[in-house]
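About this split. The held-out portion is used to measure sequence recovery: a designer receives only the structure tokens and must propose an amino acid at every position. Recovery is the fraction of positions where the proposal matches the reference. Here is one held-out target exactly as it appears in the evaluation file.
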């Protein structure tokens, strides 16, 4: 079977968040099962220079977008057996400093940019020597692909049209644009209606994927249920309820090539579940790197995140401030960026408690690995979390996660109250300062019980969240939709 994945980000070529990690790891895992896998994604600025293996092809095309005829070209790379990457080259749309925008603002022509990506993906699917059986689209940026494929099948006699699957990575981001953007799709005006992409008098790219794909997935089983409710459905819960039988949740996995404490080049010392001694070395080195007192007796908590309301960033600040004011003995390390007020709040906290709080504002992949390796506990009090990846990295690196029981956090962490023998972390439910404080106090009590602490840490480090396991669920889904 040949599967084509469509995505706006692909690690290590482009990345703003977990989407890039997930699609990259899934593509490699699927190829490892023996499937033939292709991926189509934009050729952003600097990618050919930083990745010399990307080669231009002679495959060029052009199609009208509004009053303009827009040309494109494919570049290609084959990084491993069964895996081919196709990069959409259109300098006017993708040769820019950012992926979606700059200076905290989206590019004004994002509708046109990702309509172009979607139409290019359709060209690829129609004209590859071996047409794909499945076209797997990821997030709103590729949400129009299923409706473009359906139109091509019905109106132009595309007899080998693939089955389409649409994956929701975060329902809160929908790609909503003015009605005028529909004219750029090349689709007839009567194809825009409430049963396709029309939503509150705007073109909604994500809704198009939900209405027109043969199957819908999201990135954890619990989130698949949560989005059926008004609290998490972001205005699309009614549509999702109608498509309940076509909706499933498949938890993301961990890329063991990148996240393996026994062989991670970013760490000062390796360690494993069976030989954990190196973790103490990593903790001491991290304390020195961040300017915290090197004290093995103090538990080190951490958070690596976009600083937003969704991630519970303000809740962390408020709760830590109260605990530190009360004299609790702990340290905390932050790596992240986002809302300016939250960045400043963490900076202020580190200035007020310089021996207990270190805040690094920005993005540093190597440091993120060292924080996971050096931390004793990892805070993830997300208001909602479709899957989350950092709790999975934390489990693997022995940083016991403290999470709000929502979405993928609920599915990937086991609290002692649920199963003491298999416990891997600490959960709490209300998104409140009192609930997070109680969870942290539980962690401080656990810190004083070394045998129990090591039991929970070992459980987490040996839990199986490999992509090989998760890929098998996608293969089963692909086979299922192809039989329909």
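Reference sequence for scoring:
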């Amino acid at each position: 079977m040949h599967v084509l994945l469509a995505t706006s980000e692909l690690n290590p070529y482009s990345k703003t968040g977990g989407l890039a990690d997930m699609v990259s790891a899934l593509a490699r895992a699927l190829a490892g099962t023996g499937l033939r896998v292709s991926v189509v994604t934009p050729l952003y600025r600097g990618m050919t220079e930083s990745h010399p293996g990307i080669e231009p092809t002679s495959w060029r095309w052009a199609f009208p977008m509004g009053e303009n005829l827009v040309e494109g070209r494919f570049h290609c790379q084959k990084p491993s057996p069964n895996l081919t990457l196709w990069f959409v080259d259109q300098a006017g749309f993708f040769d820019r400093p950012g992926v979606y925008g700059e200076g905290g603002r989206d590019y004004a022509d994002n509708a046109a940019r990702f309509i172009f990506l979607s139409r290019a993906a359709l060209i690829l699917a129609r004209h590859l020597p071996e047409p794909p059986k499945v076209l797997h689209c990821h997030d709103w940026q590729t949400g129009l692909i299923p409706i473009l494929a359906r139109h091509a099948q019905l109106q132009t006699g595309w007899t080998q049209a693939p089955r389409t699957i649409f994956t929701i990575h975060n329902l809160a981001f929908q790609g909503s644009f003015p009605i005028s953007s529909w004219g750029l799709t090349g689709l007839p005006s009567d194809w825009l209606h409430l049963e396709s992409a029309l939503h509150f008098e705007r073109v909604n790219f994500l809704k198009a994927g939900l209405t027109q794909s043969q199957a819908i997935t999201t990135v954890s089983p619990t989130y698949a249920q949560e989005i059926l409710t008004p609290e998490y459905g972001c205005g699309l819960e009614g549509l999702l309820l109608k498509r309940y039988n076509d909706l499933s949740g498949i938890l993301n996995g961990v890329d063991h090539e990148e996240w393996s404490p026994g062989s991670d080049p970013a760490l000062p010392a390796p360690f494993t579940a069976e030989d954990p001694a190196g973790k103490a070395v990593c903790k001491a080195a991290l304390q020195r790197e961040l300017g915290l007192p090197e004290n093995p007796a103090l538990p080190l908590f951490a958070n690596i995140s976009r600083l937003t309301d969704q991630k519970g960033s303000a809740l962390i600040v408020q709760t830590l401030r109260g605990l530190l004011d009360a004299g609790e003995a702990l340290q905390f390390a932050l790596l992240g960026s986002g809302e300016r007020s939250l960045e400043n709040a963490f900076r202020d906290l580190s200035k007020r408690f310089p021996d207990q709080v270190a805040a690094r504002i920005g993005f540093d992949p190597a440091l993120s690995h060292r924080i996971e390796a050096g931390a004793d506990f990892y805070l993830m009090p997300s208001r909602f979390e479709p899957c989350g990846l950092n709790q999975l990295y934390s489990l693997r690196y022995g940083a016991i996660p403290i999470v709000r029981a929502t979405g993928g956090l609920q599915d990937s962490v086991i609290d002692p109250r649920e199963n003491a023998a298999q416990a891997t972390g600490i959960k709490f439910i209300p998104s409140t300062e009192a609930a997070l404080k109680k969870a942290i106090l539980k962690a401080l009590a656990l810190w004083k019980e070394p045998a129990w602490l090591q039991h929970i840490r070992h459980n987490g480090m040996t839990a199986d969240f490999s992509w090989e396991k998760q890929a098998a669920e996608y293969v089963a889904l692909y086979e299922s939709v192809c039989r329909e």
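Annotator remark: Residues 2-253+468-483 form a domain with the Rossmann fold fold (CATH 3.40.50.2000).
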